[in-house]
From TrEMBL:
Residues 583-593, 616-625 have a biased composition (Basic residues). Residues 597-615 have a biased composition (Basic and acidic residues). InterPro entries: Signal_recog_part_SRP72_RNA-bd (IPR013699), SRP72 (IPR026270), SRP72_TPR-like (IPR031545), TPR-like_helical_dom_sf (IPR011990). Keywords: Cytoplasm, Endoplasmic reticulum, Ribonucleoprotein, Signal recognition particle. One of its GO terms (cellular component) is signal recognition particle, endoplasmic reticulum targeting. This is Signal recognition particle subunit SRP72. GO terms for biological process: SRP-dependent cotranslational protein targeting to membrane. SUPFAM superfamilies: TPR-like. Gene3D superfamilies: Tetratricopeptide repeat domain. Belongs to the SRP72 family. Residues 558-672 are annotated as: Disordered. It comes from Apiosordaria backusii. One of its GO terms (molecular function) is ribosome binding. Component of the signal recognition particle (SRP) complex, a ribonucleoprotein complex that mediates the cotranslational targeting of secretory and membrane proteins to the endoplasmic reticulum (ER).
Amino acid sequence: MADPAIAALNSLLREASIDDHAEALELATAAVRSNKIQGPDLANARHTRVVALLKLDRYDDALRVIAEGGDAVEKDCSFEKAYALYKTGDLEGAEAVLQETGVDTGKSQRGLKHVAGQVAYRNEKFERAAAIYRDLRDDTEGANYGEENDLRINLTAADAQLQWQGKEWAVPEEEKQPAREDLEAFETAYNAACIYISRGDYTKASVLLKRSRDLCEATEDLDEEEKKTELVPILVQQAYVFTKLGKLDEALSLQNAINLSDVSETSTKVIAQTNKLLPKATENPFIAERLARALPEITGNDRLFEFQSAALQRNKNIIDLQAQKFEGKENTASRLLSKNQVPDLSVSKVELGVAGAAAATKLAVGKPTVRELLPLLEKRPNDVGLLLTIIQLYVQISTLPPAILLLEKFFARLEEANTPEHADVRFAPGLVALAVSLYRSQNRQKDVRNELAKAAAHWRSKTESSGAGASIAREAGIELLRSSHPSDLAAAGEAFEHILSAQPGDRTATAGLVASYATTDFSKVEPYLASLPPVEKLTQGVDVNSLIEAGVALLTPPASQQSKKRKLEEDGTTAPEKEKQQPAKKQRKRKLPKNYDPTKKPDPERWLPLRDRSTYRPKGKKGKKRAQEATQGGVVKEEETLELAGGAGSVKVEKAGGGGGGANKKKKKGKK
């Protein structure tokens, strides 16, 4: 005779649906504790017990029950274990369970693939999450009712996160714009708005958020409490968009409309409270700093994504600096960044370095600030944020050569280390882009090509064929194509081949590869010619005859560079030809003085100053004396040199003149 506990459990499981999960848990527990069941009945009871605990959100208890059951239960409940680990925030443990089950193989693992997609999404591996959702979308066999809508929601969320990470290249072109179906549900409309926010297009994002809010308020699938819960992230995002658009009154109204007591997710509550700090930070930074320290701590699976955590930390750094907490911020930066043996390019560490530099100089700028920060960089040579701050200050004071020299010294030190970690930092896309921008500002095109070629060669040596390697390879190939040197063209072709190995349909890479090998290796070009658009399609609608008649349009050079002799006139004639065509200008008649006498010979000394002319006679006694002493028209004094006795040197004396000049005559007495 069957055990009563087993009979009750089987009767419950035969029902079409089970709403009372507590009852299922009670019956399954009683069946497990019964000593009369073995084999399949015991395994079924344990499985039911685990599922009931998951339905009741008792994830830790579910993991404990699975562990108590041994290897057999863990094998039967691999899906439940992975889901429980995901809900408790143990993403690495969930990934390990999923890898053991072989989630990437077979079509019978549909449920595990959904969990794998969620785990990858929360672990910020959005490329993998998007790939899993696309596989599930394309594989309709075994799909459940309504699953297509859920997959669309999850896929658009993964695409939005990819663009927030700056990986727009990882999103297919057909998924970058919202489809008509995306505007029919508030979840997909919200995700489409997030995609536009990641691009900085806040106007379109505002329209889509309003659409999402209207759909959420009008839906009949949710009760009032569920609507309030779903509306909170939409309102928070709307307030953020209004703030970015400068509509501060609308943003404040939405923030006040959010009841934080209705917010169940700690991460959403933290974001809402942080956004409300903006008006207080501008009015009184000390109050804002106190409120920022009172934000709740986020734990477990309900955590912020990396870009959100970075923004939150950036806000705290700014508030601390506004509250003049310079010494504490500088000490924190020095303590954390001095330990780095390899430069850390994470957003949090770079921004901490920037905040530490601002605190060390008390928010000062200019050349004296640079002199103050350079010794600090010698103490913390691996502080990338401090390095970028100094370079930015050099750019602000228009002193680019020292900025380039500083960056090149940093690169040289990384190359001398000769380790894979230092090499990845040396050729990080952001630092390479900074070097290229500085070189271009100084018109150093050869250095630009060398920098991009070295970066592309480094990332080609990695197994990764996408991400940083693809982006740098694309830019390097485009830049190297501007050169006519065969080695540069060959390097450009290798860069484009590297891209096509990972992204066969990349049109830019295809066209670049054809342009690179068109004159050197036709065998590499021929397979891609069919994929390029024909010339007739590119020139369709172009009137060649009208272009020939219109001539070649030339840009007018600046006025300082224009030459009258070579300047092209609108009618096609040069300046000398135009001067020949124009009539000679009438010469002006010279004006003569009123008292001019043509018979009288002009004075030859008329060009000399008045006092240099021979007819000049000074007035007064002092003037006559100066005239006599002058060499021109006056008496030249005669001097002789007398040698002193004893070889003490010589002295010049004036010769005594005899007669003339009235020197020996007595002075006449004046009248009494």
